Amino acid sequence: MSAIPARAEVVVVGGGAIGTSVAFHLAEESVDVCLLERDALSSGSTSRAAGGVRTQFSDPLNIAIGLRGVEAFSRFAERPGGEIDFRQVGYLFLLDREEDVEVFARSVALQNELGVPSRVVTPAEAAALSPLAGLDGVLAATFCPLDGHASPEAVAQGYAAGAREHGASVVTGCEAHAVEVEDGEVTGVTTSAGAIETSVVVCAAGVWSPALARTAGVELPVEPVWREVVTTAPVPGLPERIPLTVDFTTGFYFHREGPGLLIGMADRDQPPGFDAPTDPDWLERVTEVAARRAPAFLDLGVAHGWKGYYEVSPDHNGLVGDAQGVERFLYATGFSGHGFMQAPAVGEIVRDLVLGREPFVDVTPLSAERFATRALRPEHNVI
Length: 383
What we know:
By secondary structure, this protein is an alpha/beta fold. The protein is built from 10 helices and 19 strands.
C-alpha cells in the first residue's frame, strides 16, 4: 500500500471500472484526485464481469451511455492507453417469445433513431452470425455490430495508469471506513491508513456503496446478487468471430474466451445478500439450457468457473448523481450488471458533475431520489 495524501480535492472510493474511470477523467482535467481501493484494482465485480459491451438497451439514456462507451473503448489505446482486447463481434439476442420480439423491435427502432446500427434478424441470419447457437423455437433475433466484449481488468488498469500519469494518487490495500460530514458538507474520509481531508467524495464502491454512503447519512438502494460464469476447454475449429449470444428468455449467454467459450446464465431466483447461498444445481440447469442454445457445450469440459456480485438497483438502472442533504457526496453505483460497459461514459458524467458542467446526457433520472418519488425507469434488456 502506498501512503495516502493528507488532502485531496476529490476522493474516489472504489478501484473497479467505474471508480478508475472517474479518477482518470477528473485527473485529466488537472483535479487533485485520490483513488482508494481496499484490495487490488478491479478485485470486486469488475474482475468477475463477463466483459460485455453493448448499445442494445430499451431506455434512451442507457442507449446514449452505451454508445458513448463503445466510442471510448474503440479509442482506448489512444486515451488513456493500453490494450483491452476490445472485440466488436456484436451482440446477438435470441428471442423465442412473441412479446419479446415486439419489445425488441421497438427498442431497435429507438436505437436506430439514436445512431445505433442495430437490426432485427431472422433465425436463418442468426444461425449464420452465430454458428454455435441452437435456434430451436427462436422467432427472431436482434444484432448490433458495434457491440462486443473487452477485458474488464485491463480497462480498470488502463484508467488507473492514466489517472496516475495525470497526477492522481491511486492507493490500493486501503479501506475507506467513513465519510466525515459537518453541517451537511463533506470534510474528509477516514481510512484504514488514516484520514484524508477533502470536500468531495465519489462513492463508486459497487455492492459496498450503501455501507459507505450510510456513514454520510445517505441511503443508496443497492443489493448484492450473485452471478456465476464458467469457461470451457478449447473448442476445436472454433470460429474466430462469435457474437456475444444471449438467449433472452433464460439469460443464458456465451462468447469466445481464448480458445474456448465463456458461458453464463442468470439465476432469476437468486436471493440478494452477501451471505445468500447460490444454487448447487446451477451448472446442471445451465447444461439443460445449453442443450438447446449451445449444443456444442455438452461435448466440452468446464475449465474454470467463478462467481461475483451484480450490484442491483430496484429498476435495474444505475444510480448516478449528487446526494441531497449532503453537499458534494456523489455516487455512481447500482448498475445491475452494466457497470463495466457504462464505465467510460459514467466517468465522464461524474467528472462534469464534480466540475459543475453539463454532462452530455441529463442523468437526473438516475438520481437515487427517483425511488422516493417512484419515478422509476425500468430497463427491459437485462441479462
